[in-house]
């Protein structure tokens, strides 16, 4: 099981560190035949909470055999539908391996960093929402500082910070899938679109 790993997106090797860490976790899962669910949590109605949908939007062309994606800007997975989506995932897929992605608040020195952990995340924790824990593996982006008035903090988060985190997470996850299972056959058009999305 992966131990907690903190990655600084401004580091030149951040995408490769993220890619390799995820590949090590995903590879045995894929070989065992388990489906991998990428669950991007958040809403585009709040800048600080838009990390998940942005990552999902960047990865919407990544769907391939045994890799499934939930949550993007058009169809976000948020507090109101999270429980329903989780139920749907476990009803639809046999023994799924869920990679949960969400924004979070943290200490000042960790703002703008990505945290990968081999345990579930607690969506809505910053807002004291009672939502189910989810994820065999979690990826969180620390978008702002924790403390009082979390709702206002999320609303006043810099879009630059969120976009930088989304870019690194999307690229790292994309390259981990390519490294683990290769490109998608007979879908060069979709592959080119994904490359444009994450390299633009």
TrEMBL record:
Pfam families named in the record: DUF1256 (PF06866)
Protein name, UniProt field: Spore protease YyaC
